[in-house]
Each structure stands twice: as C-alpha cells, then as structure tokens.
Amino acid sequence: AQKVTQAQTEISVVEKEDVTLDCVYETRDTTYYLFWYKQPPSGELVFLIRRNSFDEQNEISGRYSWNFQKSTSSFNFTITASQVVDSAVYFCALSEPNSGYSTLTFGKGTMLLVSP
Amino acid sequence: SQTIHQWPATLVQPVGSPLSLECTVEGTSNPNLYWYRQAAGRGLQLLFYSVGIGQISSEVPQNLSASRPQDRQFILSSKKLLLSDSGFYLCAWSVRGRINEKLFFGSGTQLSVL
Fold first, then answer.
1. Smallest CA–CA separation between A31 and chain B, in Å?
2. What gap in Å lies between CA B44 and CA B105, rounded to an integer?
3. Which among B90, B97, B102 has the least Cβ separation from residue A35?
4. Burial of B11: CB neighbours in 10 Å, binned 0-12, 13-18, 19+
5. Per-residue pLDDT for chain A (116 aa), expressed as one digit of tens each?
C-alpha cells in the first residue's frame, strides 16, 4: 500500500527564515509521481509541483525548492526567506498507478505559520 | 480557462438529515471528477471518483454516495448524516485519460453535523 508521511504537524517561523517541510513516502511501484499542494486559509488546494520518479533533479521556483531523494524516499520542500503569505497547510501526495485517472495518497499535511 | 465551482461553502446540518453538495466544472470536457474529505487533523481522503457520466467508483464504504448526472457535474449525497460525516469536502478534476495528472481543486465545503 502507498503511504505518505509528513512528520511535522506544525512549524512556526519568523519572516525571512528558511524552512523545510519533510515528506517521506512508501510505494512498491517503480513509476510514480509526487506532488506538493498548498492549502491557504481559504481552503482551496493549490498545486505547487509534480515530480516523476525518474527525475531526481532538484527544482527551484523562486523562493521554493524541492529536494527529491529516491534513496531515502523523500521529497522535501524548502521555502527560502519565508513570508507571512506562505502561512498555509502544505500537503505532500503520491500518485497511484491507475489507468486514465489520478488518485493521490496525501500526507496529513504540515501547517506552516510565518509570523512578521 | 477552466474553473471549478463548489457550493455551499459552509453547511450546518442535524444528524439524520439529508445532504447534497454540488460541484461543477467549466472550460473543459470529459474531466475526471473526484470527491475528497478532509477531517480535522487528518489528510485528504478520496471518497469517490468518476471517469464519465453515471460512472462512479467508491474508495471508502460509508453512508455517502455520489452521482454524475452530467459531464461536468458531480454531486455528493447522503440520506442520513452522521456526526462522523463532519469535515471539509473538496471536489476536484483532472484531465481525462491521463494518469498522474495534477488535480485542480474547488474551494471546498465545510460541513458540520450537529
């Protein structure tokens, strides 16, 4: 069975600090996709990134960066110079290998609180 | 551009009452549709998904049901709500026929069963 673990329930930082959100996954599949979503207080989940299991290159997008380590089954998310607007719940998710549709296994989320 | 609408945004219902949550997608055809539930302190749990009109697959047995009367309409229902049905319900869509596609989520419905 697939599983995603986000061990950090809540993280509090002060603005401009860097913060890393951890994600560890379990799967028996050799082909899979990993995702990060952001859930601001409004509730809607916002897609941040999708990564396939064959691409272990780290990715940077502005203040966001992702570190995919297949050897440790981790897909960590770092926010550099955090801002108050980064306050949200962040979910890591793993895709299941189905045909024609996408079903994701989500972690329980990490609530990030960025104070001014 | 594609948009997804979900309503109502909040709902307070007594135990034993019926439920109907609606979700519609605009700007795309033949989407895959999903209902997720987010209970307090937990991650998102897939409840139902649909790959076409009238085609519903259930992931978790419960007293909820889903229907897809039109291509871009997805409805979550219950005949009699339980306290344990409280939670945040999210509708989502993805492109039909593609695996591992990202999901686009609606703004959710906060359901409180009292």
1. 10
2. 12
3. B102
4. middle
5. 789 999 999 999 999 999 999 999 999 888 889 999 999 988 889 999 998 888 888 888 899 999 999 999 999 999 999 999 999 999 999 987 665 567 788 999 999 999 99
